[in-house]
Amino acid sequence: SEMCIRDSVGKKYSASDLHAWLEKKRWEKNDDGKPQWKEAQLEMVEIIVRRMSEELSEHDTGAPVTDPLLWLLHGGPGTGKSEVLKLVKELFREVCGWEMDLNYQMVALQAVMAQLLDGDTIHHALGINPFGTKKDATSAQKASQRQADVAQRVHQWRWLFIDEISMVSAKLLAEMDLKLRGIMSD
């Protein structure tokens, strides 16, 4: 029998459910009777579906978890990158029963872009203070509690999507990496 997984806050789903949803999207038409989705958009979603299927298989067999999927979707303005993120949110919600902020997160550097995603800013989502840290005891205690809250939330995420990555400095990307590695190792 095929492996199904039920997350602590999601619903039961299988690799067949993921692939059936994707196949349905392949055949959707717009009001003009043309395909709703570009092939390149569906290719990106297919990569995510394949990865999720692999994770289901790993969960079923007890195989060691493979390295995280690191992938870049790029293209000029108006090519449909944001539509891919909408598709992914739909997949997570409809097939997996996942919620943003709880099971996955979509972030952007700027608040305006984060709002368009219904997501969060990188700094807020990961608890990174863009202005540095204060050194007094009260500030340190508040910061420590905020970091504990962030760590608890981040630890539940299965996926992190960073929109407009070209706007993120190498320094901030390294800070994000250190932050996430620290949370996961703790």
Written account of the structure:
The chain is mainly α and 186 residues long. Helices cover 53% and strands 10% of the residues. It is built from seven helices and five strands, in the order ββαααβαβααβα. The strands form two sheets. A three-stranded parallel β-sheet has the order 4-3-5. Strands 1-2 form a two-stranded antiparallel sheet. A hairpin with a 5-residue loop joins β1 and β2. α1 packs antiparallel against α2 and α2 packs parallel to α3. It is globular and about 60 Å long.
Summarize the structure.
This protein has 186 residues and is mainly alpha-helical.
The count of strands amounts to 5
The major β-sheet equals: 3 strands, parallel
Average pLDDT, all residues? 86
Determine the N-to-C terminus distance.
36 Å
Helical amount among residues, as a percent range? 40-55%
Which of globular, elongated, flat, extended, rod-shaped describes the shape?
globular
Give structural attributes.
186 residues; mainly alpha; three-stranded parallel beta sheet; two-stranded antiparallel sheet
List the helices and strands and how they pair.
Layout: E1 4-6, E2 12-14, H1 15-26, H2 39-61, H3 81-96, E3 104-108, H4 111-117, E4 120-121, H5 122-126, H6 137-156, E5 159-163, H7 170-185
Parallel strand pairs: 3-4, 3-5
Antiparallel strand pairs: 1-2
Helix pairs in contact: 1-2, 2-3
